[in-house]
Amino acid sequence: SIMALHRLLIYCSSISVAAALTLSNTYDLLIVGGGSTGLAAARLASAFGKTVAIIEKRPRLGGDTIWNGVAPSKALLSCAKVVHKARDAHQFGVDIDADDIKVDMRRVRAHLLEVERRMYEADNSRQTLQEQHIDSIIGEASFVSRKEIEVLDDGGSVVTKLRARKGVILATGARPRRLDGKVEGLEDVSYLTYED
């Protein structure tokens, strides 16, 4: 599917934990979390000449702003506004049969994926971050001490150990709370979270 291919391309453009072995293991600042807050902190530190590495558990940077929140909702809202304006076009002397307006959700979804891809490549791709002197490492961060982090692969094996000269910023974001078993009758219906 288009979505699976899109996710694969994002994954392939990220640095894997195995590739992290070629990076420096000591930085001025380590940032756990590659969402909007982690990226902003990394860019600010880099702008001040600090060496920075971001450790992100998921194989894509950008967080919910790009993938689940602001960008997708604004792209969908733009589509809805176009349909609404087309239906009200008669007010401006433009004759459009409102009953003939059709929305092709596959094309809307393709547009949404393209918006996500462009935002990712422009701001959050590995190449863009490298140009800003920021290393990005995909893996799970596990603290060894206040300024030392082990990066684990999916199986829980240590791939590399990183050290921060100055400190570590935790910018891990949030996850939707699953309500299974906590709301009577919920197991009888399907529901969506912002990640769905």
Topology of this protein?
Elements: H1 2-12, E1 26-32, H2 36-47, E2 52-56, H3 63-67, H4 70-87, H5 105-124, H6 126-131, E3 134-138, E4 140-145, E5 148-152, E6 158-170
Parallel strand pairs: 1-2, 1-6, 2-3
Antiparallel strand pairs: 4-5, 5-6
Helix pairs in contact: 1-5, 4-5
The CATH topology name reads: FAD/NAD(P)-binding domain
Biggest sheet character: 6 strands, mixed
Low-confidence stretches: 1-22
The number of distinct structural domains comes to: 1
Indicate the structural class. Answer: alpha/beta
* Number of helical regions: 6
Estimated helix fraction: 25-40%
C-alpha Rg (nearest Å): 21 Å
* Strand adjacency order, main sheet: 3-2-1-6-5-4
Average predicted local confidence, pLDDT: 79
Q: How many strand elements?
A: 6
Shape: extended
Q: Specify the CATH homologous superfamily.
A: FAD/NAD(P)-binding domain
Distance between the termini: 16 Å
- The second-level CATH architecture is 3-Layer(bba) Sandwich
Question: How much of the polypeptide forms β-strand, as a percent range?
Answer: 15-25%
Give the helices and strands as they follow along the chain: HEHEHHHHEEEE
- CATH class call: Alpha Beta
Q: Can you describe this structure?
A:
37% of the residues lie in helices and 21% in strands. By secondary structure, the protein is α/β, with parallel strands linked by helices. It has one domain: FAD/NAD(P)-binding domain (3-Layer(bba) Sandwich), CATH 3.50.50. Helix 1 packs parallel to helix 5 (105-124) and helix 4 packs across helix 5. The chain is extended and about 65 Å long. The model is unreliable at 1-22 (pLDDT under 50).
